Amino acid sequence: MHRTRGKVLGVAVALAATGLLAACGDNDSTASSTPKLTPTTTASQPPATSSSAGGDTGAQTPAPESTPAETVAPERPQPVPTDVVPPGETTKLTDKDKKFLDALKAQGVAASSPDIALSIGTYVCQGVAAGASEQDLTTFVNAMAGSDPSFDPAKMPVEKVGKIYIDTAKQTYCQ
User: Fold this and answer.
1) What is the tens place of the pLDDT at every residue in 140-162?
2) 95-106 and 158-168 are packed helices; what angle lies between their axes, rounded to 10 degrees?
3) For a surface tag, which of 17, 113, 128, 168 has the fewest beta carbons within 10 Å of its beta carbon?
4) What is the distance between the alpha carbons of residues 131 and 21, in angstroms, rounded to a whole number?
5) For 107-142, what is each residue's pLDDT tens digit?
6) Burial call 14-47: b when 16+ CB within 10 Å, e when fewer
7) What are phi and psi of 52, to 5 degrees?
């Protein structure tokens, strides 16, 4: 009987301890504030001084700066592919491209780069092949021609330049 009383008492103590521990905490494991680390100095720590052969100068030696354990490699730019055409240069012109550009130049239209003129000519040919209306072609070609940096409205109105692009592309480039 003495042994059963001891077991019951032990179980009761274990349950009481468990209950007390459960009541003490609210199961909140998140921090409610960020601790602030501030260096503390005590009167028993002497300031760091440097001494030289000539004697103590009283100057303090700064603490060495800590370095990170991992050194991050500096970011390097990617190499430029060698097959890229530099700005201002065009790809190789075909005979058809040259014929179109020469015909434009003969009518007083000189694009700032051949790529611009060839883009407009290609647009005209694609529009014609798709069955676009003359009005749609004119609107977009005028906008493209007018956005060319070499376009000068004092020399020729944009509507005339657009018409030259459309007519010339249809005659020489869309074949």
Assistant:
1) 999 999 999 999 999 999 999 99
2) 140
3) 17
4) 84
5) 999 999 999 999 999 999 999 999 999 999 999 999
6) eeeeeeeeeeeeeeeeeeeeeeeeeeeeeeeeee
7) -125, 180
